[in-house]
Design brief:
The protein is of the alpha+beta class. The protein has a single domain, classed as Roll (Mlu1-box Binding Protein, DNA-binding Domain), CATH 3.10.260. The protein contains three helices and six strands. The strands form two sheets. It has a three-stranded antiparallel beta sheet with strand order 1-2-3. Strands 4-6-5 form a three-stranded antiparallel beta sheet. A hairpin with a 2-residue loop joins β1 and β2. The mean pLDDT is 84. Pfam families: KilA-N. This is KilA-N domain-containing protein. InterPro entries: KilA/APSES_HTH (IPR018004), KilA_N (IPR017880).
Length: 102
Amino acid sequence: MTSETPSTRQIGSNNENFTIGSYNGFEIMIRDSDGFVNATKLVQQINEREHTTKELRNITRSPVFVEYKQYLEKISPFNLNGPLCYLLPTAFMNDVRGTYVH
């Protein structure tokens, strides 16, 4: 088994900073202001690696996800001070846009 040394870099858009970390062959984008992860970019990388065509929008609209999200927001086990996930507006550059999850 080979190990990869994690690396990070930062980019900015609309006065927001994002850290991109490389781990296990994936680039994971984190919004610095709240620690949310860009799930859209992660699913795209998984699709490329696994030769699949999963779409995050289909997952987040599924009844199972909607019910689970409502449950977590109701009991708030993670002490969330906001939503479980959100979509960055189009005012942000393409490199950072997507659905961010906690």
